[in-house]
Amino acid sequence: MDIQEIMNILPHRYPILLVDRILEIEEGKRIVGLKNVSVNEPVFQGHFPGFPLFPGVYILEAMAQVGGILMIKSLNLEIGKYAVVFAGIDDARFKKPVYPGDQLILELEVISLKKVLSKMKGVAKVNGEVVAEAVLMAAARKLEDIKRNA
Predict the structure, then answer these.
(1) pLDDT (tens digit per residue) in 34-54
(2) I need a surface site. Which of 38, 56, 86, 147 has the fewest CB within 10 A?
(3) pLDDT at position 147
(4) Which of these, 69, 97, 66, lies nearest to 82 by C-alpha position?
(5) C-alpha to C-alpha distances, 87 to 115, 136, 138, 147, nearest whole angstrom
(6) Which residues are catalytic?
(7) Closest CA to 60 of 139, 118, 121
(8) In the predicted model, what is the mean pLDDT of residues 89-96?
C-alpha cells in the first residue's frame, strides 16, 4: 500500500502523517508498516538541536496510525466517515534511540478487534532490532461525532 492509498484511508496529513508505506497486511490479524525518519521533519528543530532524536511519542503515534489502517480495513469502516482514535497505551517501552536516516518497521498484531475498542501489540524495529514496543488501544469514531464535540 503506497502513500496515496494511506492518505485515502487516514485523515492525518503533514506534519503528523507518520506512515510512508504498508508492507504487509493480513486483515483481522496483523500489519507491517514503514516510516522513513528524515532529518527534515519539523520535530528535529527542537528535539534536540545539534542532537536529533526521534521522540518516543512519535514512534507510538506511527504505530497507532498503522494499527488504525488495520482497523479500518478489517472492520470495513467506511473511508472518510470514520477516524480511529487512541483509547490507551499499556506497557510502552523504549529500548534504543531512533535517529534521522533510520527506517522504522512497525509491526502490529491484533489482540482484540472491535469497533468500540480494539487492542494490538506493537513493535517498532530499526535494522531488525526492537527500538520500542507497546500495547495500543483504539476506538473507531464517526468523524461527524468528533467534529460535533470539538
Answers:
(1) 999 999 999 999 999 899 999
(2) 147
(3) 82
(4) 69
(5) 12, 8, 5, 17
(6) 47
(7) 121
(8) 98
